[in-house]
Amino acid sequence: MLKIQFKDKRQDPIWIVERRYTIGSSGDNHLAVSDASLSPLHARLLTKDNKLFLKDNNTQTGSYVNERRVTEKQLLPGDTIRLGQVEFNILDSRSPSSDSTSPQSIRPHWSLVAKSGSLSGREFLITSTPSTLGRSSQCDICIPGSHLSRQHLQLTLIEQELHLRDLGSVNGTYLNDQRIVEAIAKPGDQLRLDVHCFHIIGPGDASDNQRTARSCTGVPGPVKRKAVTTAPKQWKTKPTSPGNRITPELEAAAPMPKWVSSLSVLLCGTLLATLIYLFVLGH
Fold first, then answer.
1. What stretches pass through the bilayer (predicted)?
2. pLDDT digit string, tens, across residues 201-222
3. Are 191 and 175 in contact (CB under 8 A)?
4. How far is the C-alpha of 129 from the C-alpha of 132, rounded, in Å?
5. pTM score, two decimals?
6. DSSP of 108-169, one letter per residue?
7. What would the pLDDT profile of 25-41 be if each residue is shown by its tens digit?
8. 206 to each of 62, 129, 199, 236, 252, how far by Cα in Å?
C-alpha cells in the first residue's frame, strides 16, 4: 500500500486503502481539502492490478504529477502530485513521514490502518504494550461510536509478536474473518471489530511481499507460435453439418437428337409464315 501526505505536512500521512479514493474541496470526499483552487471532486486515486493511478476529473486548474499535467497517470513512491495549488507526496510503507532525525518520526514496528468508513486510511500506532482499543477515552487507541465496547481489545507485543485478546466485547473480535478470544496476529492480517476493519502493519509486512510476488508472477512469458502446416484443414463439425456433406456433381446433359433440332426449325418457319400471311391478308 502507498500513502499520501501533504507536502507541507499539515497532517499525518494517509494510507490509500480504498480502491477508489476521492480528493476535492467537498466534504464528502475521502480527503476533503478546503482550497479555492480545487474543484468539489477534483481527482481520484484508483487502484488497478495493485498499481495506483491518479485520474483528473476534467478540472480547470488541473492535476499534475512531477509538474506535468496529466489526465490519468500511474503513481510511484517519491512522486509529487499537485491538485490546483495543493501539493502532495506519495510515500511507500517504509517511507518516514517527517525528518528522520526526530524521535517522533521513528515509525513503530506495529500499527493498525483503518480500511472502512470515515476512518479509512488513518493509521493507529501501537506505541505502548499492552495497549487497549475501545470507545472509552481512557483507551490507548480511542475510536468513538456505539459499535465498540468501552474496552474492546488488548494488543500486546511479546518477543516481536502481536498478541490480541478480546476483552469480553459484545460484538466480538475477528482476525481474518475468524472470531477470536486470543490470537497472534501477523503483518498483513485483517482485523475486524464490528463495522471497523483494519489492516495490520508490522515488520516485513506480508502485503508488500504479496504485492511484489503478484507483480512478478503476472509477467507473461514468451508466446509460443503454432507450427505452420501445409496440410489441408479438416472439418471438426458433425457429419450432418454442411461442412462435411458431399455435394453431388451435376451430370452432363445428354446431346439433343438431330431430328428434334430439325422439327424445331420447321415449327418456327411455319409459325413465321402464318404470321406474314395474316399480316398481308389484313391489308
1. 259-280
2. 988 664 544 433 333 333 334 4
3. yes
4. 9
5. 0.49
6. PS-EEEE-SGGGTT-EEE--SSSEEEESSTTSSEE--STTS-TT-EEEEEETTEEEEEE-S-
7. 998 888 889 999 999 99
8. 36, 22, 11, 49, 81
